Structure formats: structure tokens, C-alpha cells
Amino acid sequence: MRARLESGHEQHGAAFMIRLATDIGGTFTDLALERDGELLTGKLLTTLDRPEQAVLEGSRDLLARAGVAPDDVDLVIHGTTLATNAIIERKGARTAFVSTAGFTDMIDIGHENRFEQYDLMITRPRPLVPRSLRFGLRERIDVEGQVITALADETLEELADFLASTRPESLAVCLLHSYANAAHERLVGRFVQERFPEISVSLSCDISPLAGEYERATTTCANAYVRPVVVDYFVRMEQRLREMGIHAPVLIVMSEGGLTSIETACEAPVRLVESGPAGGASLAVSVAHAFGIDKLLSFDMGGTTAKVCIVDDFVPQYDAWFEVDRTYRFQKGSGLPLRIPVVDLVEIGAGGGSIGHVDAMGQIEVGPHSAGSDPGPAAYGFGGDRPTVTDANLVLGKLDPHRFAGGRIVLDQARAEAALSAVFAQPLGLEPAQAASALAEVVDENMANAARMHAIEQGKDISEYTMVAFGGGGPLHAARIAQKIGIAHVIVPPNAGVGSAVGFLAAPVAYTIRRTSYLMLNAVEPQKVATELDGIVAAASAHTARFAAAAEPEIEWKALMRYAGQGHHIEVPFEYPFPKGDFRAWMTGLFETEYLRQFGRVLPHLPIEIVGWVHRNALSLSDPATMWNGQRASLAKPVETSPARAYDLEKADYVAAERFERETLDAGWRGSGPAYLTEEQTTTVVPAGFACETDERGFIHLTLST
């Protein structure tokens, strides 16, 4: 009898002998099937109208190729862009917003700062809830949680009349200072559920119990907006999986990189907005463990965007907020702020489908718009006629037209050249190869600059890092980007083309809680703090309890602290339960040590304030340190090669190159550029000036020659 998720008789994934991971992206849907440590992968175009269709089609194909019956699958792990797309495309539910009277316009007002200082016609992000669907409740709670104006029954009846007349599908409730006292929000939630059970209700005290009314409101509105859509999708997907014969538990990837149950995902679907990219961070962590690399730069390039993440000491960087639906794409501050735990990624519009054009200054620009999967790049032959990065890579000789996406799509070079000529020939006088080279150089520089700036903002020297490249486009561009930013070593893992899906298999079950709590350290009572933290533990454990027997939990605590009067705080790691002794002196020491590390000095004359807590509960279903330990047996195959050509930027002409089939390269194989290492879901480009080598675990190592 197969071990299931709830059994928990074995640890670190041993109970899950067959695991299926699926990642729905903007262009492609990636799949990875793990059986006893062996991987089988697949990639197919995303079915945008019914996203689950590509998952089902790809799953059937993978299981058939592996000779695995659907009922033998022990665990399904799923990442999706559904929540993000619903917000961006404004295809969410009809949502109403309830706030304290006089504050319903805060989702319009936002902040006084301007993200683009010199644009007089600036376009601010449009709220998800129109004014006609907002209601102000006569109630008031202050910052300390004291009730100033009680919530009267007649006010609730007025709300009932409003809901009856407007008939929303979903409701977001965000009352002032509910993070300090949630009584009024809870009362509203119960009232609406009793009177209008058909309405989906999201309370800010559940979704984002943090100070900052605007961010708390936009986060709660976003959750309410996407919740009916996400719930319907997961119900539909689970039903289709059951009909297919897969009865395994389904875990969902959250924006923080952890896995959670469908039930939790349906309660807070706003935490899925960076679901797919977070898998890439998990992959990078597993690679860091495999090679003992404590400074790693994760580079994930797909069909729509490219993502960069810094991994220090085997931990990706995290953030407490994320922007979605930016009116100025990739312009910080121009989107809807969401207060959710998220892997700290820098994302730019540079994917295989990113469209090239000539701007008003006569310069070549790439992105941010993408051709996606429909119509896709011109070379797909699906009706697209605008030049993309994929078209450029084909014309430059980097792609084998018959091996793209595992042979599912045969690329048409004539269409790619025609698209390049149509856009770049007349205004710039460029031949297709010249235009392709310029387009590729622009997109590489854009990505290199994004990585460079991200490292600078974090105070990192990027030249000290090793790059791990994955995604369908990552290995195609990694070496050139590494060269631009001073990185000498690039690692391309096995099955890199579906890297995020593979990363899902390394992700832990995890749940993070961030909560506001204003306390002056010199007046804090440790027992009251302990009671508050016990409540946080109970809340987090409710989301991970069903998995507790599968692994030992990894608990992380941080206090959000600052000097009184400061407008910013730092995260200070600490242990809980607290050690014996003087609590205030202990916390002061922890704060000053961290403050000194970050800023180079402390201010002992100023009082210290605690403004919140962060708790993360993680349970590993697999060991990232041993994920890649399976030794590759000697292939005993001849190395398959074929002649190719590479465009030399300096010579402005093609030069001879070689194309190798990656699967025929045994451990210890060495080569040099220009060369291409082709596999089903991607191609690794080895430019001139780089050496490459394969190791016993199937990794490709690119090294910049000195």
C-alpha cells in the first residue's frame, strides 16, 4: 500500500516515491515527474483560456512515458499565475469594499509620493473596487486596540441593505487598526456570512494583520478579488485530476517559496501571485547545497519575463511586500502594493516572447510586451508577425528549429527573418542577422543591468557570485550576461528548461506570519509577549499540522525593531522560547548587534521599539543537500554532434560552431565555444571565450577564460 501525505511514517520525502510538479507560466507549462530520485520532464504551450488543460495533457504524457499509473502518484505540487493574471487582466470577481466611515477612498489616495516625478500625466494604479461598491461603517478602534465608537446593529443593517442592492460576489473588509483589535472585523464577517452565505468574505485581520492602512486594504481587496476565481479553478483542477485517476494530495506553491494545502491557498490566494518564480529560488538553493556555494545568483528566463534572485548562505532573500499590475511596467511604485511574504526577485520584461521595436529616438528596445503563447513569436507560425527574442536566437543560430520545446514546435526561420526585416530594415537599414544580433545584445544588457542594480541595492559585490541558469531562455543568455557583470562561473543544472517545476520538488511545506505589535522594549512584559507569540505559533501550526509527521519543523523567529522615532525597522532573529535571564537586556543586545552589522554604529541613548513579529514554520519533504546526489552512470554512447553557426558580433558575420546533444555528454566531457548544448527544453550557449565541462551529476559548468 502506497504511503500518502497524511501517513507521515517516513521523513524527508521518502514517503513520496512518485511526485508530480506542474508550473503554469505565461507562455509554457512545465512539468517534472520524480520517481525514486529519477526525473522525467515535459514542456508544452500554456492553454490560456483553460490553464488546467495543459497540466492534464502534460501529466498524461509524462505518466505514459514513465509507465506510471495515475493512481500511483503520491503527491502533486502545483504553481500557477492565475491570481496574478486575474488582477492584471481585471478578470476577478465583482468585489465590494467595507472600511471605517470616511476612509473608503484610501485605495484611491494611496501615498503622496510620485513614482515618476517629472511626468505630469502620471497614471496611478486603478483600484480593484470602484466607488459604487464601497461602504463606510460607523465604527472606530484606535491604534492601541481601544474601541472609540462601537459597531451598532443598525450600522450592520445598513451594510446588509448595501450588499443586497449591489450584489457583490466577494467582500473585502478593512477597518482601521484591526491588526490591534479584530473584534469589529470578526463581527462584520460573521454577520455577512450569516445573511449572505453566497458572498466570499476576506478580512484584513486574517489576510494582512499589519499597520499601514493603504497596503492592508489593497492586499485584502486583491485577495477578495481573486478568491472566487482561484477557488473555482482549484475545484475544477482537482476534479479533473480525480477523473484522470490521480487521487494524491495537491500542494500549492506560495509566493514565499513554501508549499501549502489547497484549503490554505483558497483562504489567502493573494499569496500565490509569485507562485511560479518562487520555485526557481528553491532550485537555486538546492544547487547551492549540492556544490557548497554560499553566494549564488539565480537567473530564470522564461517566455515572458526574466527573474534574478540572490541566494546567500543557502537562503534566498525574502521581502514583505510585492507590487502587481504596474501601470508603468517594471517601474517601482506604479503598481498595487501587496503585503505578503515573497521571495525577493527582480523581474524584467525579457523573455523568449519579448517583442523588439524601434522607439521614437531610433533605438532598438525589447519588451516589456510579450507575444506569449498566442500568437507567440513569428517563428512559431501561429500568426505572430512581430520580432521577438526567440526569433532573434533562431536567426543567430542558437536554436535547433527541430528540437524546440521537445520538438513540439518546429521553428520557421524564414518567418523570423521576415519579422525582423519588417521592423528593423527600413528605419535602421539592418539585415535580419544584424537586427537579431542587436536585439539579443539589447535584451542581454537589460538583464545584466537589472542583475547589477539588484546586487548594488542589496550591497552585494556581484562578481563574487556564481550564476545558476535555468528556464527555457536562461541557458541561452546566461554566459553573455555573466560576462557583462563579471561572473566567471555559470552552472546549468539538469532539466534546466523546466527549472521552476524541478524546484517545486525541493520546496518545503511552509507558512509565514507577519504581525504588527507596538511595544517599547524598556516597558515590555515578557509573559505577555510569550502569550502573543504562542498565538502566532498556533496560527501557523494550523496550516502545517497535517504535515508535521513527515519531517522535523524548522522554526524561524524575527522581531521587527527600530529606535523610537525612526520610520524604518530592521529584522532581528531571536530564539523562542526565550532563554532565562533579563529579557530586555537580551533583546537589546540582539538588536544592537544586528543594527551595528547593517549600519556600522548603534545609538545607545535612544529607546528601542518592537513594531512586529515574523514567524516561519517550515517542514522539508526532501533534503535539498542530497537532491542531486544520484550519480549518473556512464552513458556508453558516442557524443552526438552536428555543424552549426554562430553570429560573431565583432566580425558582424557568422562563424563555424558545433552543436552537441547534451544527453550524450558523459561526465568529464570538456569543450569550448562557440558551441551549443541542445536538450529537449532549452539550449546552453557556450560563447567564444568560455570553456564548458559536464560533471558526474549531469551539471554543465561554463567558465570564462582568463
TrEMBL record:
Pfam families: Hydant_A_C, Hydant_A_N, Hydantoinase_A
GO biological process: glutathione metabolic process
Lineage: superkingdom: Bacteria
Domain Hydantoinase A/oxoprolinase, residue spans: 216-510
GO MF annotation list: 5-oxoprolinase (ATP-hydrolyzing) activity
Domain spans labelled Hydantoinase/oxoprolinase N-terminal: 20-195
Acetophenone carboxylase-like C-terminal domain mapped to chain residues: 555-702
Gene Ontology CC entries for this record: cytosol
Protein name according to UniProt: Hydantoinase/oxoprolinase family protein
Source species of the chain: Nitratireductor arenosus
